[in-house]
Design a protein that fits this description.
Blueprint (H helix, E strand, L loop, with lengths): L4 H4 L2 E3 L5 E4 L3 E4 L13 E3 L10 H7 L5 E4 L1 H11 L4 E3 L5 E4 L2 E7 L15 E7 L2 E5 L7 H5 L4 E5 L8 H11 L3 E5 L12 H7 L5 E2 L3
Parallel strand pairs: 3-4, 4-5, 5-6, 10-11, 11-12, 12-13
Antiparallel strand pairs: 1-2, 2-3, 7-8, 8-9, 9-10
Helix pairs in contact: 5-6
């Protein structure tokens, strides 16, 4: 087994699709159901407007005075209403930007054959590129061409089904995409979105791709 210590350094999976990256900066993606109030976020990236991704109560737990948001235009409107004049980088699919020492690619995130995340909403996923490696946070999506073509070392993959790809579809997709490491998320935290055991079931379906449950 390959040593993934560097890739996993400072990586913490939160509830649902929440992730905390402590690299050159502290970066949160879609923080949800936090139990502490660290107020340590340099940047918060939000993929879309659903309650388990845009959670004002959880954002208040991580915000500090100079926190910067990265979000789509519809989420930026919500941020303005909830947090006033906090700085927001408004993004759309295809954008690229720098957040401190990290670079961010913005990818489209959408469903195929489901109504929950229409492509026309311009909701997004992010590839965060740091000195330790690159991390793909795809948002709520199915197995789209953009997902399969994402150029990142670590894929966080939604496996809960219902609103995203399910664990079998996710395993087939990452077996094709072949990242260095895959981490399942978006399962087992909310009713109707997978169960806890799905993480290990997903790992068992991987072929020549390393995976880990965090």
């Amino acid at each position: 087994m390959t040593d993934y210590t560097v890739l996993l350094r400072g990586v913490k999976k939160l509830k649902q699709a929440g992730v905390r990256l402590e690299k050159e900066h502290v970066i949160y993606i879609d923080p949800f159901q936090l139990i502490t109030e660290p107020h340590d976020a340099d940047y918060v990236l939000i993929t879309h407007a659903h309650h388990d991704h845009y959670s004002p109560d959880d954002l208040r737990r991580v915000l500090k005075e100079d926190t910067v948001f990265v979000a789509t235009a519809d989420v930026a409107d919500k941020l303005a209403a909830d947090f006033g004049d906090k700085k927001v980088h408004i993004v759309a699919p295809g954008d690229m930007l720098s957040i401190g020492a990290a670079a961010v690619d913005v990818l489209p995130s959408y469903n195929l054959g489901k109504p929950f995340h229409p492509r026309e909403n311009n909701w997004v996923g992010y590839i965060v590129r740091t000195g330790d490696g690159s991390y793909y946070l795809p948002g709520d999506c199915d197995v789209t061409p953009e997902f399969l073509a994402a150029d990142a070392d670590v894929f966080f993959v939604p496996i809960g089904g219902t609103y995203t790809m399910d664990l079998e579809q996710a395993a087939e997709a990452v077996n094709q995409a072949r990242p260095k490491l895959v981490i399942p998320f978006h399962y087992g935290d909310l009713e109707g979105v997978g169960v806890r055991e799905d993480g290990e079931r997903f790992l068992a379906l991987l072929k020549d791709v390393e995976g880990v449950v965090l």
